[in-house]
Amino acid sequence: MAPPEHVRLVVKESLADLVEAAAAHVRAAAAAAIGARGRFRIALAGGSTPRALYPRLVDGVDWTRTTVFFGDERAVGPEDPQSNYRMARETLLGPAGVPSGNVVRWRAEDPDLDAAARDYERALTVGASAPWLDLVLLGLGPDGHTASLFPGTSALAEEGVLAVAVDVPQLGTRRLTLTYPALCGARDVCFLVTGRDKAPAMAAVVDGGRLPAARVLRRGGPVTIFCDRDAASSVQPAKQGPRETT
Question: Which sequence spans correspond to the domains of the chain?
Answer without folding.
Answer: 7-245
